[in-house]
Design brief:
Shape: globular
Helix content: 55-70%
Number of helices: 7
Radius of gyration: 14 Å
Structural class: mainly alpha
Largest sheet: none
Length: 135
Amino acid sequence: MTMTAHAILPSRNEDYGFFQTLTNCPQRERRSAEVWTLASRLIAAAVSADTEDEMIGIRDFLDSRMGRHFADDVVGNMTGCNIDCETAINAAIRRWQGWRISKRTEREEGIPAGLPYLTGWVQHFAITAAMADAD
C-alpha cells in the first residue's frame, strides 16, 4: 500500500457521517479531527488513492450516510474489542474491502459489481463530485 501525497481534506459535515459518530464515541483516544485525518490516510492507502478527485471521494464518503455506517463499524470495533482508533479503523477497512459491490448496488448507484465495497463507494463519491464540478 502506498500513501497518498495529496492533502487530507477536512470534513464538510461535522454534524453527521463519520466525524459526528466518532465525536460521540467515548472510547476514542484522539481528538475527532485527528481520527478523521487518520481514517482518511488509511482509506487512501487501502484504495490506492492517488488523485485529488479520489481524496474528495474519501472526504465525501466519510461525510455521507455510508461514512456513518463505516464509523459505526469502527466504533463497534473499539467498544467490542477494546482496541485503539487506528486498529479499529484498519479492521473496518479490511472488512469493507472484503465485501463486494452487489448487482443491486450496481443497478441503483452505478458502481461496478464485484469491486471491493470501500473502493467502490470512494470511487462513487469521487465521480459524483467530479460530475458536479463539471456542471
